[in-house]
Amino acid sequence: MMRHPSRAVLVAVAFFVAASGAWALDFGSLVGIAPSYGDDGLALSFSLTPWMSASLGGESELYLSGSFSVDLADGAWTFGFAPERSELVLRPVAGTEIRAGRIRFADDAGIVISGLYDGFSARTVFKGVDIRLGGLYGGLQDKVDSKLLISPADIADYGDETVLFAPRRIVMAASASIPGTIAWFADALAQFDTRGSAALHSQYLVLGADGSLSRVLAFNAAMVGSVVEEAGFDPAFSLASEAELGWMPEGGWRDRAYLSLRWATGDYGVFNPYLSVNAISQGQVFTPRLAGLFVTRIGYTARVNETLSADIQSTAFVRSANGGPADSGIDPSSDSVWLGAEAYASLRWAPVSDISMSSGLGLFVPGTAFLADEPLRWLVSLALVASL
Amino acid sequence: MKKVALAMFAILAWSAYSAFGQSGVEIDTLLGTEKVNAALAARFVLPAADILPATTTPEAAFAAAMEKGWLPADTEPDTPIRLSLLSYLIMRSFSLHGGAMYSLAPGPRYAYRELLYMRIVQGVSDPAQTVSGERLLRILGRVLDLQGGES
User: Fold this and answer.
1) In a domain, A118, yes or no
2) Closest C-alpha among A56, A291, A30 to residue B125
């Protein structure tokens, strides 16, 4: 896309003109400013996200959006444009939905893949079973935004300034879930590296359930088994799992207390460090990948009133003896598994429909696995978004 | 499935009858209307907001809406009403508060956005869509629910 900017612009304009001429549409823009300050210094982000939405008759619709951004990080300003969620949604018959374009996609457990991808997903109900298929491609995304970092080749490309796009990886996904008070689901995902030499492919099988245990108790739990095939290496097996228990006291504004556990194998016996398709951060201040890691989080979300909500959470990180997360502050000679603990509080205030503000305050206390002089890590953030 | 749909339809019609105080014949006519015009929309919205009596006519309701400036001056009574214009008529009739942009530039564009935000307008929609009688009743039902919840 960036190699043929004039063609991309022409296609976008033609699409827009066709949409505006043939169907009625709505359009607008989100304007955002998000400063944050942490142990890495000041970061600032300005964004303008124009969007367009059109109904195409019946139950079909088109949504296009893209984001212009100006960012300050590590003392340097960067500018950019990236297509955001842009999709054609078709609903040919009741219960069937097809999405194509730049779509949000995540597995049912949320620990294999999560984010924006280019491709399609189709969902339908067959004999009471909710079936979903997906075909996704990562190579058209900006490499920094995509967080597609699996192999050493990905990391090399990430550091190469001549490479603009994310690794050319294809993901095929199929899932089935049986709805009910407790819904059971199974996902199968296969990720293929199309770059030939030094390719790394991976497959995942997810089994899980979510539902209500009572009027005030809800849970979800899932287990992932994964096989990674890398050129020149034997297949590598890994496991990951997640479980969450939520308690929603009756009455009021639907407050929620939650306890969540996430675990993934490191190097242990026949098992290897778990590799999700894209990096999924497990913390707010300390943001390790889920690999050789055990994460326990307890938190409480309160809706103070119709416009104000608050969340406070505490997270503990324990690594496996080998194959745990990488971090520049970890002591390479330490055999301690205690990575540390994090506390994070956030507020969201939406006084009116088109203005929202959110702020966060977090502190990570490094554990004994870190270097002795590793300082506390902290983060203060603020975000203001207005919809025009 | 058809039985459930019929039952839902009957409940909807009965709810409309009891909520808005219109006759069964009028409700039947409305439910059979594919594109509600401006006069018919005003006839149902203004009484639902207690601005006019339930026995008002479409002509009288349209005249009242025009007089208050809640419909554009060039609106014809038999023009199919657009979703954005219906949204503005509802916002003004029920004195609903909007967001910052609606406060700065009150009009159909931001009125439609407000009703989307409040989930009063649901499903696939755009501001220029025409409105069926069934959809009008559903929208008015949600407004009345919201008002009931707030009061």
Assistant:
1) no
2) A56
Q: What confidence tens digit (pLDDT) does each residue in A155-166 have?
A: 888 888 888 888
Cβ atoms A211, A183 nearer than 8 A: yes
pTM, entire model: 0.81
Each residue of A321-357: pLDDT tens digit? Answer: 888 888 889 999 999 999 999 999 999 999 999 999 9
Q: Give chain A's residues under pLDDT 70.
A: 1-24, 252-253
**If you write DSSP's letter for every residue of A196-220 in order, what string do you get?**
-TT-EEEEEEEEEEEEESSSSEEEE
In a domain, A107, yes or no: no
Q: Kindly give, in sequence order, each residue whose CB lies less than 8 Å from that of residue A43, ignoring residues fewer than 6 positions away.
A: A35, A36, A37, A71, A72, A73
Q: Does A355 sit within 8 Å of B126, measured CB to CB?
A: no
**Helix, strand or coil, per DSSP, at residue A70:** strand
Whether B62 has its CB under 8 Å from any CB of chain A: the answer is no
Longest Cα–Cα distance of chain A, Å, equals 66
Distance CA(B91)–CA(B20), nearest Å, equals: 17
Task: List C-alpha distances in Å: A317 to A181, A293, A379, B144.
Answer: 32, 7, 18, 49
CB contact under 8 A, A354 and B118: no
Angle value at C-alpha A304, between A301 and A306, nearest 5 degrees: 110
Domain assignment of residue A261, yes or no: no
pLDDT in tens, B68-117: 999 999 999 999 999 999 999 999 999 998 999 999 999 999 999 999 99
Residues forming a β-bridge with A241 = A223, A263
- The whole-angstrom distance between A10's CA and the closest CA on chain B is 25
d(CA B38, CA B80): 6
What is the C-alpha to C-alpha distance for residues A70 and A49, in angstroms, rounded to an integer? 12
Domain limits at A290?
281-388
Interchain proximity A54–B126, CB inside 8 Å: yes
User: Does A350 map to a domain?
Assistant: yes
ipTM over 0.90: no
Q: Half-sphere exposure of residue A342, counting CA atoms within 13 Å on the CB side?
A: 24
Domain count, chain A: 1
